[in-house]
Hints:
The chain is an alpha/beta fold. Helices cover 29% and strands 34% of the residues. The chain has six helices and eight strands, in the order ααβαβαββαββαββ. It has helices at 4-21, 36-40, 64-71, 85-97, 136-149, 185-195; strands spanning 51-56, 75-82, 104-108, 121-127, 150-168, 173-175, 200-215, 218-232. Strand 4 (121-127), helix 5 and strand 5 form a beta-alpha-beta unit. The mean pLDDT is 95.
Amino acid sequence: MKQLEEIRLNEKAYHDYCYSQNKLFEEGSWLGKPAKSVVDVMEFFNGENHLRILDLGSGVGRNSIPIAQKYGHQIEKIIGVDLIESAKYFADQYAKLYEVGDKIVTVVSDISKFDIVIDDFDYIFAVSSLEHIESIEVFEEVLQHIIEGTTTNGINAFIINSNITEYSLTSNRFLEPSFEIRFETQQLLDMLKVKYASWNVIRHDIKPYEVKINRDKEEVLLRGDAVTWIVNKTH
C-alpha cells in the first residue's frame, strides 16, 4: 500500500490541477454541481435559525456555497475544513463572488486534527473526504468526535467512497488507489450502523459510479460505490 505522504501528494496534485482548470458550478467536472442529498438536508431545519454547520473536506465550497445562498437567513456560520491550501484560496474567492463570504469561514487542517467542540454544530457533513483520513482507527475516532460535536436533533450526512479501483486508460493497467482508507462497502456500512445505533436513519443507499480523472499525467478510470449516510441525533 502506498505510504500516507505519497497518497496525499498525489491527491494534492490532482485537486490543485482540478481547481485551477475547472470553475465552480460550470459543467465539465465534478465541481459542476453540489451533492443534492447534502444540500436538501437543510429542509429538516425548517424554521430553525442561528444554525452552525461544519463541512469536512470542504474543497472550494461546492456544497457550502449553495447552502449559504439558499439558507443563509437561517445560518450563523458554516466552517469549511480542508487539508489543501488551494481549496481554501479558491473557496474564499468563490464565497465573495457568490456573496456569502459573511457566512463561510475556511480552515486549512487535516480533518483528524480539527477540534470539534462538543454540542457545537447542528449539521456536520462530509462529501468524499472521510475516506482520506489516515487510517480506519483514526476514522472511528473522528466519527466519535463528530457524534459528540452534534447538537440534539442535529444531523450528520456523509458520502463516502468504497470498493474503489483505479485503472489507467493510458497504460492499460490497474493502479494502486490513491486513497488512505480502502473501505469495502459492507465493512463501511457495518461500522456506520454500530456508531450510529441510537440515531434515526434518514437515508442510506449505495450507488456504483465510474469517472475519468487525470492522475500524474495518466487518464484514469476511477470506479467504486458512493455510500450515502444521513442520520438524525434524536437524543
